[in-house]
Design brief:
Largest sheet: 8 strands, mixed
CATH architecture: 4-Layer Sandwich
Helix content: 25-40%
InterPro entries: Ntn_hydrolases_N, Peptidase_T2
Pfam family, one: Asparaginase_2
Organism: Photobacterium carnosum
Strand order of the largest sheet: 4-3-2-6-5-1-11-12
Number of helices: 10
Distance between the termini: 36 Å
Radius of gyration: 18 Å
CATH superfamily: (Glycosyl)asparaginase
Number of strands: 13
Structural class: alpha+beta
Order of helices and strands: EHHEEHEHHHHEEEEHHHEEEEE
Protein name: Asparaginase
Shape: globular
GO molecular function, one term: hydrolase activity, acting on carbon-nitrogen (but not peptide) bonds, in linear amides
CATH class: Alpha Beta
Length: 308
């Protein structure tokens, strides 16, 4: 068994590891761990305590994928609910759809009695407005929100740009490989923006025959390259895990225009190997790993490739 997650997973990684160790089905083990991340206000990019969009609204994204059946569930721009990962899971189990967004996602969340709540804490609200004011003239401040939003979403400074979506990958006791993600997305994003997290094949992908992959940081890049699916496809084509990840890094590095800041790839294969590589993400990039035989998850350093 193996469990791989990014650095923001610390509130829930041990819970997921314990569940896997006890023989629990992999995807439920991931969902329960991510729910603890969603509840923790120290993690400013996921769930409660995350950063709002440019209008000061919390919009949450999440996804799950079962590598045995290739079934998926995802929600995007979900408002008013504490655990988007649980709603995404129920999309997979209860609907003949794969993704719900916006108002429809909220209607479904209410229908399944998902935990409702306001994810915007006072500190996030204050930081949002202070940062936003810096990008507006006094006249715009007085007229807000009836001002052009695109310049504000492009120019306002994300207070924690090195922080990311939470991503969990696992292979359970039955060798089922699964993936799950949750995020509040970019701080000050344009309303309705979806990153890669709820887009299966971009932000995450799992196939028990080959492996799984999930991405963090600049979701726009992972969407353009279908990065998560690409890593798994490269393994299907016969590449070893390391080579598959490096090939996907080359795909990302090919992007020359648009917003191209950086991406960190987290991947596992069906043989119990893992690889985490960060492209053009400065700073200390770490991840969490647990495998059969380990007492508890360990935080490790990712490989960093800088081409800029």
């Amino acid at each position: 068994m193996i469990l791989l997650a990014n650095s923001e997973a610390y509130p829930g990684i041990e819970a997921s590891a314990r569940r896997l160790q006890a023989g629990e089905e992999g995807l439920r083990a991931l969902v329960e761990g991510i729910k603890l991340v969603e509840l923790d206000p120290r993690v400013r990019t996921v769930g409660y305590g995350g950063w709002p969009n440019v209008l000061g609204e919390m919009e949450l994204d999440a996804s799950v994928m079962d590598g045995d059946s290739l079934r998926t569930g995802a929600v995007g721009a979900l408002k008013g609910y504490i655990h988007p990962i649980e709603v995404a899971y129920k999309v997979m189990t209860d609907l003949n759809h794969e993704i719900l967004v916006g108002e429809g996602a909220a209607i479904f969340a209410n229908e399944i009695n998902a935990v409702a709540g306001d994810n915007l804490i006072e500190d996030s609200k204050q930081v949002w407005w202070e940062k936003l004011k810096q990008a507006m003239t006094p006249e715009q401040q007085a007229a807000f929100p009836n001002v052009p939003l695109a310049p504000l979403s492009n120019n306002a400074t994300d207070p924690e740009r090195v922080r990311d979506t939470t991503v969990f990958l696992s292979s359970d006791i039955n060798n089922k490989i699964t993936a799950a993600t949750s995020t509040s997305g970019w701080a000050w994003k344009y309303p309705g923006r979806l990153g890669d997290s709820p887009i299966i094949g971009a932000g995450s992908y799992a196939d028990s025959r080959y492996g799984a992959c999930a991405c963090t940081h600049t979701g726009e890049m992972s969407i353009r390259c279908a990065t998560a699916h690409a890593v798994v496809l490269y393994m299907k084509m016969g590449m070893k895990l390391d080579d598959a990840v490096y090939e996907a890094i080359q795909d990302l590095d090919y992007l020359k225009d648009g917003y191209t800041e950086g991406v960190t790839i987290h991947a596992i294969d069906c043989h119990g190997n893992h690889k985490v590589v960060s492209l053009n993400c400065p700073g200390n990039i770490t991840y969490w790993l647990w495998q059969t035989g380990m007492d508890k998850p360990e935080e490790r350093q990712a490989e960093v490739i800088m081409t800029k």
